[in-house]
Amino acid sequence: GAVVSQHPSRVICKSGTSVKIECRSLDFQATTMFWYRQFPKQSLMLMATSNEGSKATYEQGVEKDKFLINHASLTLSTLTVTSAHPEDSSFYICSALWEAWDIQYFGAGTRLSVL
Amino acid sequence: AQKITQTQPGMFVQEKEAVTLDCTYDTSDPSYGLFWYKQPSSGEMIFLIYQGSYDQQNATEGRYSLNFQKARKSANLVISASQLGDSAMYFCAMRTNSGGSNYKLTFGKGTLLTVNP
């Protein structure tokens, strides 16, 4: 299967700081990437669809000014959690769409803890 | 609206036995895809198997097979010869192309599989 790298795997930050998470497709080009959030013992919740060269599409209820998404190249999308607060603590996971096979391949996730 | 239902919060299976994880779906879109992902305790989501709505045969990938019953709108995952490493959360997901959904996936709530030695 295809490889998607997500970095960092774990981050602890102070309240009010910003955190950037990177998602890279290592062996294929991805016009479309996705960002999800997962609460403990729950399913994945789609936050936004990241489109290379254009603005991200956010799901209803997701604050676009808080969760900034940039997809500047065909292999990299970034999610920046701005002015993080304890309620933003969660597991964030990205995926990249391999269009030829119509399959989303996922990164290993980032566990964010805001103190 | 698209919906995925996984009715088994948890399942237990003995090592080397087969196990079936249930998944039913609801969509009015004639074109859709069904996926199964495995999520170990480490958190990564591992793609297992895919079934397209127009595929005539059930998908198979090694020890994984998808029992696709279109009329019943079910897409159960069958794992043969279970191994201890199969212990994980399993998610069923559906992709539809309607309304410019841009390949978004709808996930079920998951089934936690425990393989006993």
Describe this protein with a few key phrases:
heterodimer; A: 115 residues; mainly beta; seven-stranded mixed β-sheet; four-stranded antiparallel β-sheet; globular; B: 117 residues; six-stranded mixed β-sheet; 52% strand
Kindly describe this structure.
The complex is a heterodimer of chains A (115) and B (117). Chain A has 115 residues and is mainly beta. Chain A is 0% helix and 55% strand. Chain A has no helices and 11 strands. Chain A starts with a strand and ends with a strand. Chain B is mostly beta strands and 117 residues long. In chain B, strands 2, 5, 6, 10, 11 and 12 form a 6-stranded mixed beta sheet that branches. Chain B is globular and about 45 Å long. The model of chain B has no long low-confidence stretch (mean pLDDT 93). Chain A binds chain B through residues 1, 32, 34, 42-44, 46, 49, 51, 57, 91, 93, 95, 97, 99, 101-109, 111, and chain B through 33, 35, 37, 42-47, 50, 52, 91, 95, 102-105, 107-110.
Uncertain regions of chain A: pLDDT < 50 for 5+ in a row? none
Major sheet characteristics of chain B: 6 strands, mixed
Distance between the termini of chain A: 36 Å
Helix-strand makeup class of chain A: mainly beta
Helical proportion of chain A?
under 10%
Shape of chain B: globular
Unreliable stretches covering 5 or more consecutive residues of chain B: none
- Tally the beta strands of chain B: 12
Q: In whole angstroms, how far apart are the ends of chain B?
A: 41 Å
Quote the average pLDDT of chain B: 93
Structural class of chain B, please?
A: mainly beta
Name the chain pair with the biggest interface and residue counts per chain: A-B, 25 and 21 residues
Q: What is the arithmetic mean of pLDDT of chain A?
A: 94
Series of secondary-structure elements of chain B, N-terminal to C-terminal? EEEEEEEEEEEE
Multimer state:
heterodimer
Instruction: Kindly provide the radius of gyration of chain A, computed on alpha-carbon positions and rounded to a whole number of angstroms.
Output: 13 Å
Q: What pattern of helices and strands is seen along the backbone of chain A?
A: EEEEEEEEEEE
Instruction: Note the beta-strand portion of chain B.
Output: over 45%
